[in-house]
Amino acid sequence: MSIHATPDRETVRSSRQAGEALAQVSGPADAVLRVSDRAGRVIEIAVPADAVSALGDVLEAIGQGHAVRVVADDEELTTNEAAALLHVSRPHLVSMLAAGELPFRLVGTHRRVRLADVLALKRRDDEARKRALDELTGLSDELGLYD
After folding, report:
1. From CA 73, how far away is CA 117, in angstroms rounded?
2. What residue ranges do the domains of the chain occupy?
3. CA triple 52-57-58, angle to 5 deg
4. Residue 29: which residues within 8 A CB-CB, separation 6 or more?
């Protein structure tokens, strides 16, 4: 599923409302989704807990006005796509690949990187950045720089 364009105001508004309603559910659980089609038929669909959680994430992103694309973790990215996801230049990404910071495979002469690996690296970098910021904040407190 993809929404390639920025969602319109009505989509943002209704997604935000749906996401807020879904957030009221205590912990993800299996659910039944009731969908009405244009002919007026109501269809009930059993939705597993993991999909309910993912739906909440999608609704939250659309509710914030973001375009959304849902892909499988094992999807492979080009170096341009991976670099864009990591907010680095393609040459920097290629040097990261050469240094072994991120696994890749060659398809002919082109490098391919698994989305799951890119997201794991991004998560590790984000966590390291947060720890460093917390440490700096602690040092600033100790030095009285916030007084």
Report:
1. 8
2. 9-63, 76-142
3. 95
4. 49, 52
Kindly give the confidence (pLDDT) of every residue in the chain, 147 residues in length, as a single tens digit, with 9 standing for 90 and above.
444 567 889 999 999 998 888 888 766 678 888 889 899 999 999 888 888 888 888 898 899 998 888 878 789 999 999 999 999 999 999 999 999 999 999 999 999 999 999 999 999 999 999 999 999 998 888 888 776
d(CA 2, CA 67): 8
The angle that helices 79-86 and 90-98 make with each other, rounded to 10 degrees, is: 100
The whole-angstrom separation of Cα 103 and Cα 133 is: 28
Characterize 56-80 residue by residue with b for buried, 16 or more Cβ atoms within 10 angstroms of its Cβ, and e for exposed: bebbbbbbeeeebeeeeeeebbebe
Q: Which amino acid is at 102?
A: L
Q: Give me the CATH topology for the region 76-142.
A: Multidrug-efflux Transporter Regulator; Chain: A; Domain 2 (1.10.1660)
Q: Which of 57, 78, 82 is nearest to 69 (CA)?
A: 57
Q: Decide if 112 contacts 93 (C-beta within 8 A).
A: no
